[in-house]
Amino acid sequence: MREIVEGVGQWCLHGVRRLGYGTRFFCTVLSKTPFALRRFGLVVDQIHFIGNYSLLIILVSGLFIGFVLGLQGYYTLETYGSEELLGRLVALSLVRELGPVMTGLLYAGRAGTSLTAEIGLMKAGEQLSAMEMMAVDPVARVFAPRFVAGVISVPILSLLFSAIGMFGAYLIGVALVGIDAGAFWSQTRAGVDVLRDIGNGVLKSVVFGIAVTFIALYQGFEADPTPEGVSRATTRTVVSSSLTVLGLDFILTALMFGGR
């Protein structure tokens, strides 16, 4: 019994230490973001690496999600004779939930793992230590531009995901099953509020971008400088980021739409 209590205590202490270290690292990265903004070329390079290389999977996934929502929404609304509401149903589903959440998950799997592996390999190759020896702050030069780029890229990718998803639903609803195009778009415009729906969806994607990018950078920084350590760090990035996105989505949805 004593061994169990000691084990639980050590696990709790280890968790508190890691939480404190992660919080301090997050504050350090935030304090260096003005440097990244002053040298915005570094941020632009990382936006290209993070956002542009993630664009294909975002667009393809959004298109097929739109196809599925169009079909399932039509079959459901047809039961109640409300097929014209398909555009509103798909639009609200995308801009409120599926757009930010799916983008966050895909971003974690595509860009988050790349960031973790890149930072982990830089640590294993002692490039971060070499920067410190040359009086270059690795947090300002390496971590801050990637963090800012992730925060900027995720909302843009989320909007593109929602837009291409709406196009996919339009193809299914109008071209395939024969819903009137005017009714589709008029119901979409009438049912979606720019500030309440699109604005809250963008805010969600910003929060997801902050969380996933930080987790990816932190796991890379904490990775053991071995091939096995880097591989375990990338796995932890995907698992931790996915659970964080889903948990934050529940909290943000309750705060944003719980009173309505």
The succession of helices and strands, N to C, reads HHHHHHHHHH
Number of domains: 1
Count of individual beta strands: 0
* Total number of helices: 10
| Sheet having the most strands | none
Strand content: under 5%
Radius of gyration of CA atoms, rounded to a whole number? 22 Å
Q: What distance lies between the first and last C-alpha atoms, to the nearest angstrom?
A: 50 Å
Share in helix: over 70%
Mean pLDDT: 87
Q: How does the helix and strand content classify structurally?
A: mainly alpha
- Residue windows where pLDDT falls under 50 for at least 5 positions: none
Morphology: elongated
Question: What features would you describe in this structure?
Answer:
With 260 residues, this protein is mainly α. It has one domain (32-257). The chain has ten helices and no strands. Helix 5 (86-124) runs parallel beside helix 9. The N and C termini lie far apart (50 Å). The model has no long low-confidence stretch (mean pLDDT 87).
